[in-house]
Amino acid sequence: MSSVLVVGASRGLGAALVDKYTEDRKNIVIGTTRSSEPPSRTSENRALFIRDLDVAEEGAGPKLASSCKGAVRKLDTVIITAGYFGTESFDEPKWADEVRMYTTSAIGPVFLVHYLVKAGLLTQGAKVILVSSESGSITLRHESEGGGNYAHHASKSALNMVGKLLSLDLKDKGIAVGIVHVARLYENGYDQGVGFDKYWDNGGAVTPSEAATSLVDFIETFDIEKTGEYWAPRGPRDIGTAGAVLGANLPTPLKLPW
Q: What is the DSSP string of 41-69?
């Protein structure tokens, strides 16, 4: 039996993770949603949903810890999937969208993990998985992609740094921190409608359910020996610049460069 917290579980990858973990009825699964209502899915009667929780708000950490303490003694796995994607270009940068992307991706997670640890919910053997993206890798950026979407890329780079620093702070406590690029997703919960759907088929996109299965399998093998590392559980198949930057015959899972 495992106790699992999925932050950002209302749709897309987060919802699929809740569905995957609740397949084992012995698991205790907690999901969060910004909505005042839980998602209308078949798994909702087997998962506890913490409602009205916005990672980008300062009070999210204390609320999350308090709500979880009412449900479980400790958490074995915490997966933070919450994100926001607003498109922008050099000619049309967007201040409010940038602030929201940085806050959701790179500021909120620090406070969530802080309050969970201080509440005694994360202890030795626990795993924290931060869902980032290959778009946060500076090494993988290539002129074939061009520029733009500054905060999308840079907020994920900032999340990668957050994950690395958290791994250093939590290693002595025996808490492993992983940073992952999951996949390019069909019907992604936070970037739906921003125009990237035209790349789905050629870009190796998979469904949230397929991505959730790969991530759950990866988490099973992830431990303190890999803490602070940045991985693509499904390998290079949907990373468009992988061949040009890293070469051919790359392994799966693939450890990504910062």
A: SGGGGGEEEE-S--TTSTTHHHHHHHHHH
